[in-house]
From TrEMBL:
Signal peptide: none annotated. InterPro entries: Bact_response_regulator, CheY-like_superfamily, Sig_transdc_resp-reg_receiver. SUPFAM superfamilies: CheY-like (SSF52172). The modification 4-aspartylphosphate is found at D57. One of its GO terms (biological process) is phosphorelay signal transduction system. This is Response regulator. The lineage of its organism: Bacteria, Pseudomonadati, Pseudomonadota, Betaproteobacteria, Burkholderiales. The keyword Phosphoprotein applies. It comes from Diaphorobacter ruginosibacter. Keywords: Phosphoprotein. The keyword Membrane does not apply. CDD domains: REC. Pfam families: Response_reg.
Length: 129
């Protein structure tokens, strides 16, 4: 079973490259994308049983990824929220942890770690299913 992943990222190039990489290497199925805080919040909260993983950028065309993370704080325990940002500073990582984020990855040098995370999370779901 593929890891149903929703991506909130406003840069089309990054979004398409990320989807291609994750679908090829990590058995991920990109089930939807959003470019703004409102679109991301709306879809994720309206479709609570439709996703396993949300990958959220913090700086969006409208709003902030922090608002998306806040809206999903009370998600099902098996659903994972990760941040992929160019601004993965200690302060940002702490704020994300306060919002219940499962992991934070730096766009510039932690894509491999994100791929590994997706692989591990997908296998964990299958083992417990």
């Amino acid at each position: 079973m593929k890891l149903r992943t929703y991506i909130v990222e406003d840069n089309a190039t990054i979004r398409e490259n990320l989807i291609g990489t994750l679908e090829e290497l990590a058995d991920v199925e990109a089930i939807g994308t959003a470019e703004t805080e409102n679109d991301g919040k709306a879809w994720l909260t309206a479709n609570p049983g439709e996703w396993d993983l949300a990958i959220v950028d913090l700086f969006l065309r409208q709003g902030s990824g922090l608002g998306v993370l806040e809206a999903c704080r009370h998600r099902h325990q098996a659903q994972k929220m990760v941040v992929l940002s160019n601004y993965a500073t200690p302060d940002v990582r702490m704020r994300c942890a306060q919002l219940g984020v499962d992991a934070v990855f730096d766009k510039s040098n932690e894509i491999d770690a994100l791929v590994d995370y997706c692989i591990q999370h997908g296998q964990g779901d299958r083992q417990s299913a």
